[in-house]
Write a structure and sequence with these properties.
By secondary structure, the protein is of the alpha/beta class. It has helices at residues 2-32, 89-97, 124-138, 151-158, 177-189, 197-208, 217-220, 241-250, 268-272, 274-288; strands at 35-36, 49-55, 59-66, 74-78, 101-105, 110-111, 144-149, 167-171, 228-233, 255-260. The longest helix is centred in the N-terminal third of the chain and has 31 residues, at 2-32.
């Protein structure tokens, strides 16, 4: 009888372990898998040019460019994870109406830009760097800013070498990759699910062939001598207010932190509306317009 109990217990442990491994593999594929979307046919209701930006002669970044007033400033808009440039249309329409040149892009493995895996800002930062270079070459007399949401914000900060920007706005950015993963596991699987990060992080590292400690914006933000506005929501459970404050504390001045009451993790422009536009317009005019 005693041996049967031991054998039964061992079988249960093996079964639990196998289920956990299966969950890890499934999560790895779901989270890092590409998110292609046909975008070109969904043209916005204001004038844009369809563009393709070569990246290291390996592939091209797809995007839309809306021209503004020469010398007024140019802005790069970078979408969140598993999204595409359509997410940034509201911001683009508003900013272009203010006279800014606006470039919206699809990060690799998103929208119409090719790619096999989402890398949480590591390789996406190469796309952002190519887009910034494109703006500098196209509008050599304009100052340039970038606005990024979640993945887009991480790609802006993780770029190496640092981007040649005159200002940046970072929405719902996490300080460390481990915290971002743990928060999402807890959100979807409960507090106990948070412990899966101990297995999931090494698997991400293997799957993407990179060290996850290279994906920590808080380790890079202090090296960027760029005026920055952080935006966070009081109801954001993906990136908490304390985590946003740590990023703000690590950044160089000039810097601002705007915590939006009642906002979650996504769609800051949609949630805050006119208040968002007033705050963004004020920040950008300070650093882009001579």
């Amino acid at each position: 009888m005693h041996r049967r109990i031991i054998r039964w217990g061992a079988i249960q442990l093996v079964s639990v372990f196998m289920v956990m491994i299966a969950i890890i593999f499934l999560l790895g594929e779901i989270v890092t898998g590409s998110a292609p979307t046909a975008v070109e046919t969904l043209l916005p209701d204001f004038p844009v040019e369809t563009i393709q930006i070569p990246v290291n002669k390996d592939y091209v970044v797809h995007g839309w460019l809306a021209r503004g007033i020469s010398g007024h400033g140019a802005i790069l808009l970078v979408h969140s994870m598993r999204s595409n440039r359509l997410e940034m249309l509201g911001r683009a329409r508003f900013l272009n109406s203010q006279g800014y040149h606006v470039l919206m892009i699809d990060l690799q493995a998103h929208g119409e830009t090719p790619g096999d895996r989402i890398t949480f800002g590591a390789r996406e930062s190469v796309d952002v760097a190519a887009a910034v270079d494109y703006l500098r070459n196209t509008f050599p007399h304009d100052r340039i800013a970038a606005i990024g949401a979640t993945l887009g914000a991480a790609a802006i900060v993780l770029a190496d070498p640092p981007l040649r920007l005159d200002a940046m706005i970072l929405e719902s950015l996490h300080p460390t990759f481990a915290e971002a993963v743990t928060n999402r596991l807890k959100l979807h699987l409960g507090d106990a699910g948070g412990y899966l990060h101990l297995l999931l992080l090494p698997y991400f590292s293997f799957l993407l062939d990179l060290q996850v400690d290279q994906l920590n914006p808080v380790d890079r933000i202090g090296n960027l001598a760029i005026p920055v506005l952080f935006i966070s929501g009081t109801l954001d459970r993906h990136t908490t207010q304390s985590e946003a404050k740590r990023l703000y504390d690590a950044a160089q001045s000039p810097k601002e932190l705007w915590v939006i009451e009642g906002a979650g993790h996504y769609n800051m422009h949609s949630f805050a509306g006119k208040s968002y536009e007033i705050r963004i317009a004020d920040f950008l005019s300070t650093y882009l317009q001579r």
